[in-house]
Amino acid sequence: MPSALINVPAKAKRGDIIEIKALMSHIMETGYRRTAAGDVVPRDIITSFACRYNGSEIFRAEFFPAIAANPFISFFTVAKESGKFEFEWIGDKGFSETASASITVA
Amino acid sequence: MIAARAIALCSLAAFAITALPVRASEIPPSERRSGYSFMAPDTKAIQDDDTANPGMLWVLDGESLWKKKQGASDKACADCHDDARTSMKGVAARYPAFDKELGRPVDLEQRINLERARHQGAEPLALESRDLLALTAFIAEQSRGVAISAGEDPQLEPFVAKGRDLFMQRQGQLNLACANCHDDNWDRRLAGSAITQAHPTGYPMYRLEWQSLGSLQRRLRGCIFGVRAQPYEFGAPELVELELYLMSRAKGMPIETPAVRP
Amino acid sequence: MHDVNPSTRRRFLGLAGSAALCGTVPIVTLRRAEATPAMLASAIRNVVGEADVHTGKVKLDIPPLVENGNTVPLTVSVASPMTADDYVKSIHVFNEKNPQPNIGNFYLGPQSGRAQVSTRIRLADSQKIVAIAQLSDGSFWSTTVDVVVTLAACTEEVL
After folding, report:
1. Residue B2: what pLDDT?
2. Domain covering A4-105 in this structure, CATH number
3. Do A71 and C120 touch (CB under 8 A)?
4. How many domains does chain C have?
5. CB A25 to CB B52 under 8 A?
6. Å from B41 to nearest chain C CA?
7. Averaged pLDDT for residues C90-111
8. Disulfide: which of A95, B205, C74, C140 matches B259 by Cβ 3.0-4.6 Å?
9. Given an 8 Å threshold on Cβ–Cβ distance, is A5 in contact with B57?
């Protein structure tokens, strides 16, 4: 059952630059491994990650097989207003997961 | 002729090294170090941050499983054991523990399956399955910071002794005992990797090599395979005895579950 | 040893060669699929086109000797005021010897506050990592670091 770990400060002052961390459970199968029988294990990775802050996209990433399993990403944003961060992961085999976190900006 | 003599000398030297009795002096308590201390700062940082430690993903899964109704009893772990933060605190630090009914020690994974059978009427979770690892990690994480006290029960004495024998015995094509590396040569390197003292303070742990969380038994099987010996099956009493000895050898060290290791 | 018929030897080598071509030789050789310098160059060209790439402004934080190539922490940062007029639009990370040249592309904007992204990557071998940033004025800046990757001491039996 895919689970995500999000780290967003619960509170921030307006104008603060805050760090956001997100960790998603995923095998990130490269597509370059082979089974003992010699068959290629097909690629199965998260291909994109996006973060929206009160509806507008503040960060986006494209992942390739070189991103390690259970992909971790950390990035920064300016705390403008109270509200919600929404995170979305999209990948192979129809993988689609979301998560959210709230922030109070004073 | 020269080549033959060189070969003879080499094999004599190799024989001499392998024929030396296992010195295996126990590591003095003042020199005991967790595997954490052998890691590079970047890897330590992964373990230090709960929101960046991939092992925590399993702990989160385990928390949901703790509350999920199981088996014929339709009871969740939480129904009897309430808040794991209180009820499970310190448990992992004293495992493997003696099971009266079976008359031998069981590790935390086996205890979970025994509880499922005895009190939930539920099928055992497959050893090393994601669900069992998640539950074990969740329970063990409640003991984070608690000093290891496994093996103090006098009933466990013969099993600790068996585990110690297993730790000291040479095995496999490489004819190495665990003690050869982990008692006698820790803090040297084996092909670029640090040799640690092998204290199981952080299991189940996220191993970068596995890119997954795994149990101590998985690590032991990997090591035994590494010296080219036939590894014991998951759940074998030998593995539990080894776990028990290793935990008693690490007495007093704090639990770090879920640890991160290279 | 001295009386091997040269023609027999030649025939044997010929047979061995063709057997290898037919793939019937039972020896398993690890075909190291590598990104070639040409693949890396073309992946970079996909991003920058024909524009010049300046060296500077970009910093790659990555352990020079990694503990395990499966999970290598990486932080890329760009010196930039991140204002509406002067900010980092995107950061692209490449490698030299993995089977594929791309590692990740990251898209920022003035709202980012700081042009810094951290993630964990896989490295198949000791190699160069290249990070290229595109600024709001359209210019490209890059940095390159060398990373040493050793294999794990003991490989595990596949479970």
Report:
1. 54
2. 2.60.40.10
3. yes
4. 1
5. no
6. 9
7. 95
8. B205
9. yes
Q: Is B49 on the interface with C (CB under 8 A)?
A: no
Check pLDDT > 70 for residue C21: no
Number of helices (H) and strands (E) in chain C: give both, helices first: 2, 9
Give the nearest chain A residue to C95 (CA atoms). Answer: A66
Among the partner-chain residues C71, C73, C150, the one whose CB lies closest to the CB of B192 is: C150
Which CATH number covers residue C79? Answer: 2.60.40.2470
- Residue-wise pLDDT for A85-104, tens only, equals 999 999 999 999 999 999 99
- What is the value of ipTM here, to two decimals? 0.95
Q: Residue C41 to residues A24, B90, B111, C100, C144: CA-CA distances in angstroms? A: 31, 56, 56, 12, 13
B80 in catalytic set: no
Report the predicted TM-score, pTM, of the whole model to 2 decimal places.
Answer: 0.86
Longest dimension (CA), chain B: 77
d(CA A47, CA A65): 9
Please give the residue range of the domain that contains residue C57.
Answer: 37-149
Is residue C128 a part of any domain in this protein? yes
Q: B211, A27: Cβ pair inside 8 Å?
A: yes
Residue A73's pLDDT is 98
Residue of B nearest to A67 (CA): B211
Does residue B212 sit at the A interface (CB-CB below 8 Å)? yes
Does residue B231 sit at the C interface (CB-CB below 8 Å)? yes
C20 belongs to a structural domain: no
C11 lies in some domain: no
Q: Beta strand pairing status for A95-105 and A11-12?
A: parallel
Q: Which of C61, C62, C65, C67 to mutate to test the interface with B (most CBs of B within 10 A)?
A: C67
Q: State whether the Cα torsion B215-B62-A44-A35 is positive or negative.
A: positive
For B102-137, the pLDDT digits (tens) are 999 999 999 999 999 999 999 999 999 999 999 999
Domains and CATH numbers, chain B: 55-141 (1.10.760.10)
pLDDT of residue B9: 52
Q: Does residue B39 belong to the interface with chain C, where contact is any CB pair within 8 Å?
A: yes
User: Residue B166: beta bridge partners?
Assistant: none
Contact C135, C68 (CB under 8 A): no
**For position B13, what pLDDT does the model report?**
44
Q: CB–CB of B171/B225 below 8 Å?
A: no
Q: Scanning every residue of chain B, which has its alpha carbon at the shortest distance from the alpha carbon of A20? A: B51
Catalytic residue among B77, B178, B181, B223: B223
Does the N-terminal peptide bond of residue B28 adopt cis geometry, omega within 30 degrees of 0? no
pLDDT in tens, B2-33: 555 555 554 554 444 444 445 556 788 889 99
Condensed to tens digits (0 to 9), the pLDDT of residues A46-60 reads 999 999 999 999 999
Residue reference for tokens 């068959």: A39
- Neighbouring C-beta atoms of residue A19, cutoff 10 Å: 15
A18 close to B (CB below 8 A): no
